[in-house]
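Can't attach files on this board, so I'm pasting raw text. These are the components:
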Amino acid sequence: MKKKKILTLILFAPLALAAQVQHTHEYSRLRWGIEVGFEAFSGDAITIPQIRESRSGYYGPEYISDFDLYYCGFMFPKYDYTRYFVGFKPEYSLNHHFAVAAGLRFAYNNSVFNSDRDYFLWKVKEEGLTTNYVRVTSVTQNNFYVGIPLELKIFTSRSDLRVRQYFKTGFVFNALVTSDLNVNFEDAAMAKYGEQISRQVKKPARFGAQAIFGVGLKLGRMNHPFGNIEFQIPVNLLNKQRASSFIYQPSVSFAMVATINIPAGKQKLSYNYYSAQ
Amino acid sequence: MKQYIFTAISIMALFVSCSKSEPQMDRNIFIPDENDSQLPAYTEWGYNSFGAKIDRQYFVSTSHIMPCRALYKDGYLQFSLSGVYWLTYSGNTEMTLSFSFPCEQLHTYADLLILNEKNMELSAGDIQVVQTKVENTAQSRIETIDTLNVVSGMLHFRRAQLLSIDDQPNRAIVSGVFEFRYIEDNNVFPVSVSNGRFDIGINRDNFYAY
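---
Top answer:
Structure tokens for the assembled complex are below.
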């Protein structure tokens, strides 16, 4: 019985092969790429010495259950931060499993700094025995960056499937191009102190470096324009950096990136595959 | 007529709802001391907080008791700190510590700037330290007032400053430290009040002169 089965397989195998057709799939090694995405995290607040509430928090001694005892306004211990970016990033396939990419990225962040109250107090002047606070409702900061991503893509499968998983690693170097600060006052007449407050806060870090680890899906064949969607974990390589004037960059954040690639160049990569007739 | 009343009530409700939140300066802000988190850190921001250790118990400010009152009368300034004195896990005692000392003529809270860098020896004859305790229990309220027999100690106003908010004078901020020892009746050993510190805002709500 067993011998019969083996014999049947040996007889039919050539027939099955004969029923398939060999194809050659070819795609460009080089692809233009346009990426859009965002990086987000929740960063520790930077203590600003001029803010009256900056060191405060809800607090109760261990044996007091009544937290209202020390009820007070406070600055949040953490603030959310999102940096949006768009960039141009060509990609080059080294072989069927590895591709490298490098590009130029423009990033933008808008940070808002406020308290749990309508306003917080900012010390703008201290002369002799007189001190002047102003009521600040919020401070917003716009930061513009230029970045250089350097990436290595590792495809798990050799075949250019329509949906193809890959892993990514690399680096992103960001440089702050410009930053502006807008102070919103409870009393609009205090806008005259806006410039002074801007001078009192430290600028965001001028330079940032991150190692990138990610996973993504390529959507579409590489011989036509195709897309990628990625989830990344950027790891900050520099310690205690100011992401904005009010937030420290944490060691790890997360990012989502979408890319469109358009085949370019004459150098091709090819491989053979079989399909049913 | 009912319509007019309803309209008036509506307008009043609108005004009440539009009123601004309580000024931040009136609130207590408690910044725990780095070395002893039961005590507020020494600050000069007008956090309306104070604290001291009385032997091994804590006397600290709370949000529901006006932390400080200053009264100028007959050439004396009475500077009092009111808060709670923690006795047990379940109960506490309201307590006021008043320092009364000779002072130049004061008319308004702004005149408190004369306290800047003023140092006082609390065992001096013309200075009085009065302790008032109010013990609240379910059944009773017991108030005791003691003029303390201070054997040594000092009250140091490290800084007095006049604070403006949005360019408008708002209050005086008085910050300082204190510590002293006193003898209780029928006791040979002194009670130690140590690590005292205060950072108080004083305006027309808690300053009186007459």
